[in-house]
Amino acid sequence: MESYCTVLSDRVKNVLDAHMTASDIIEDTKKFVYDMLDPTSERGDMLYRYEHSIRAAENAKVIARAENLPEEPLILACLLHDVGYRECDDDWRRHPFVSADIARVYLQNINYDPDMTAEMVRGIARHNLTDGIPEDMTTFQISIRDCDDIDRFDIIRTAMVMGGTVFEKTNSEIIESCEEAISNAKWLMNLPRGTKTAEILLKNNLNKRIDLLNEIIAQARKGF
Ligand SMILES: [Fe+2]
Ligand SMILES: [Fe+2]
């Protein structure tokens, strides 16, 4: 099975040791992810990351049921897709690989199906790919990334992004930053998706974002 050569810290090893069995696999995996992200008071961003992982897993349930994909593995993969985030403070771009390595050890420890584990681990390692999707990337693997993206562009994230886009800016600055955000959203809308259901869910979120940005642009134009 593929390894991405992460050197696991003592903290990670301790959390892994404390989660060697899973009786209710989905609930126990949520606890594992929570302990691994460890949202202490000075790291509220890790609580956001945990809640994001739960929402990605909810998207997984919807997509798996609609598209006849293996439901439990897709939910688990989405719960685990950012599990290494706290270990990547130096460079967040490493997090798909660190998360994949931590997920691999966890799934092996709880004796999860080895073939499914390999597929989940590979999908987690690839969940940040945008263009240039490898030809051997399966629908299951792409769906992990889709579940992540659907949450990354939901209305909560739209509100977060919107703050920086408009806060204390002049009308012309607002128009410029909103136009940039629209072209970003349109680029994302055209990336390939694993399933029709993911495409619909993501388009729905992105269209809401684009509509809001267009309304803001219209109001800023009135200011001239
Ligand atoms: Fe991620
Ligand atoms: Fe994510």
Automatic annotation (TrEMBL):
Pfam families xrefs: HD
SUPFAM superfamilies xrefs: HD-domain/PDEase-like
InterPro entries (alphabetical): HD/PDEase_dom, HD_domain
Organism domain of life: Bacteria
Residues of the HD domain: 49-152
Annotated protein name in UniProt: HD domain-containing protein
Organism for this UniProt entry: Butyrivibrio fibrisolvens DSM 3071
